[in-house]
Each structure stands twice: as structure tokens, then as C-alpha cells.
């Protein structure tokens, strides 16, 4: 008898294929979801170090219009969001071989991000707005102090 790889329940005889790994479609979907989460996490961990540099290089503002939702760090579902309402956009999508490098990443507001995804903004136009993400030692110290201040305010509240 075969057992489900997700819930360890016996696989019903009605599921006749020799390749069946799951007892139901629900378990199959759950397994697929878990695999997708692993892939997304792997990609996020790879891009995370450079993402913080991108946010800082653009001052947490859209590269095109300068919009940001708030100058404060946003806490959503218990996690700090450093984007201030903006998102990192791959100029050349990863599906087309684009990489998570400084030459391919730009910070955009939701409107410009959607327009870029729909190719209403040309890639050449996006490249005109690219900024260097390398930080000087002074910029690194200032950023560290800002983060420390924001975290202490979150932990200890206004003093």
C-alpha cells in the first residue's frame, strides 16, 4: 500500500496510476505550493542583499516620479517593509534571463511598475533612470543609524 507524501494517509485504490504520490488533489496542490514557496524563498534570499542597496540608492522613492507611500518603515503582518510602498523591478525579466544585479534592478512605484510590466515604459527609458547602488562608508554609517533609530522606536516607542 502507498502512502501520501503530504499527510501519510493511505492512497485510495480509486487513484489507479502507479505514479500517484498524494491521496487527494488537496494534498497535491499543497505539495506544489510548498515547492513554489521553496523556489520563491531561494530567489528572495539570493536577491535580498542587493535589494537593500537598491532601496537605499533610490532613497526608497520611485526612480521615475519620486513617489513613496510614507517616509517611515512600514510594518505589515509583523514584518518591516523597507520599500516604503515601492517595489524592485527587473528591467529584463527573470523569465527572459534577466539577473538580480544592479544593472537590471530599479525601484518603481506601483503605477510605473505595472506600466513597466506591460511594456508601456520602454526598457531603454528605464535604463535612463538607473542609479549606482554602491555606498560610501559615510552613507553606510548614516543608514545604520537610521535603521537603529527606527528599530528602537518600534521596540521602545516614542521617548
Describe this structure in words.
The mean pLDDT is 84. The longest helix has 33 residues, at 25-57. It is built from four helices and four strands; from the N terminus they run αββββααα. The protein is mainly alpha-helical. It has a domain at 47-156. It has a two-stranded antiparallel sheet with strand order 1-2. The chain has a two-stranded antiparallel ribbon with strand order 3-4.
Q: How is this fold's topology laid out?
A:
Blueprint: H1 25-57, E1 74-76, E2 79-81, E3 87-90, E4 105-108, H2 110-117, H3 123-128, H4 137-156
Antiparallel strand pairs: 1-2, 3-4
Give, in order, the helices and strands: HEEEEHHH
Mean pLDDT: 84
What structural class do helix, strand and pairing data support?
mainly alpha
Q: Helical segment tally?
A: 4
Biggest sheet record: 2 strands, antiparallel
Radius of gyration: 22 Å
The percentage of residues in β strands lies in 5-15%
Question: Gap between N and C termini, in Å?
Answer: 64 Å
Number of strands: 4
Quick one: overall form? Answer: extended
Please give the order of strands in the largest beta sheet.
Answer: 1-2
Q: Could you name the ranges where pLDDT drops below 50 across 5 or more consecutive residues?
A: none
State the share of residues found in helices, binned by percent. 40-55%
